[in-house]
Please model this.
Amino acid sequence: MKRVEFQMKVLLYLLVLISTPLLAASPEAIYGKTGMVTSRSALASAAGLEIMKAGGNAVDGAVATAFALAVTYPSAGNLGGGGFAIVRLANGKVVTLDHRETAPASASRDMYLDSEGNIIKNLSTASHKSTGTPGSVDGLITLLEAYGSLSIKKVIAPAIRLAEKGFPLSHDLARQFNKVLNKMDQHPGSVKTFSKNGVPYEEGDIWRQPELAKTLERIALSGRDGFYKGKTADLIVAEMQRGDGEITLNDLANYKSIWRKPIRGMYRGYDIYGMAPPSSGGALVIQILNMIEPYDVSAMGFGSAKAIHLMVEAERRAYADRAEHLGDPDYYDVPIAMLTDKQYAAQRFADFDSGKASKSEDIDAGHWLEESSETTHFSVYKEGMMVALTTTLNSAYGNKIVVQDAGFLLNNEMDDFSIKENSPNQYSVIGREANSIAPGKRMLSSMSPTLVLKDGQPFLITGSPGGSTIITTVLQVIVNIIDHGMSIEDAVSLPRFHHQWLPDRIIYGKYGISPDTLEVLKKMGHIGFKEASWGRGIGDANSIMISDSVISGIKDPRNDGAALAY
Ligand code: DON
Model:
């Protein structure tokens, strides 16, 4: 199908779906007066907007968007994964909800090692054993019950409709399905979902997911019990038994998301609210901001060698702390107060030399997967209420295993544990005792849904996918706006760079560092450089900014999706 024809089809579909015309859509920043959703899927953004227009608040809109993403963006939108949400209520209170997966009760520290202590290839990423007990459904329902204003039946309705009636596959999705299909041939449920009886889908085909629609209907009818008990739970356990997986009915029945105290920092007078462990995101964003705050980043200029050097040196130190100190706080004493303290940052950064790179330990901890990995972040705003929600199956399409007859994919989040001390995971980050596996424990994350307030008022909602690069993506969106005074459009769109201590190298998006800037950085002693070759650059920061009562938002132009407003 021709691209124009396809776009017309999707537009017509969107118009039918949201019943009133769209006022605006990405890729440019769009503006709104009342509410906005920006996500990786136009159909999911439309679902969130539909619910807010029907009287729902931003939490209702976010829950509707998340359930719709599980239908329209299966790579990362999910029922079988987990995530983190941060919400600012209209009364100013900020809360965070951890709905990260947990290690099943039978999990053990060395479960991915052979008898000689070596990592068994692919076991923590591409097997039934790689799955942590899913947290998304409990998380979304917990959010809705606490702060939403509509029923689960109402907010899940657009997702059910999308699964039942189907929708035309975009070029992007059809391409993804065909790429991932060859990794699914061991899993009949997956082949059934992502092909037409083994024949690849094409752009423009209507993709229907009747089994997923039934699972969603069970959730609509029975809430969390529609997933964690009864038929859906039985189907998950049956899938586990097909592939020697660990999750039992008890693991499912015992899953609970947890309200955590937000991590709070202050940067140049702005309040930064981030996600607490088991995400490392909030702590690291704030630690890096604390380290760079004494320097005049604005005067250094966007993209200058000086600014890149400063931020890379701060990142190097913060990621080294991540490996040592961060893990599930219910199992390990994470020194959060220290990590987010301005004095600690000053002391940690005291050896910073503005003209010379320091060296990470002299080991290259591994290689970035060229295979794309996936998570997804969306932002929602309405009438003073802000929601940032990042959710994932870990790798793109998780472990590629669809639960037979239930129609949804399972995560491979167990790989986010430190499966062996100092061994890199798929994002090349290493971990230690703090992030070792234990029954019921939550694996460390980099997901960083973030809110920024100015004088106590909503200012910025941001977050991103990208494994370990999530943290530095969020950091750059904040610095671009606060230090460089950029619009949301520029702050999100411009190329990014990333350093994570080990491996000792700067990764940067295409056109992100000019050749002469690279030369300056090399002269300073930076030893490794890599142009990001995956996807369309680093991160996918669907973000919203609120300034002078104007809501401006953008879907990250690196990928499909839409910001929609009214
Ligand atoms: O929680 C984490 O940090 C990872 N599981 C996130 C994975 C991810 O962002 C992959 N996306 N691009």
In short: Residues 15-26, 362-371 have pLDDT under 50 and may be disordered. The CA atoms of residues 327 and 434 lie 5 Å apart. The first helix runs from residue 3 to 18. The chain is about 35% helix and 15% strand.
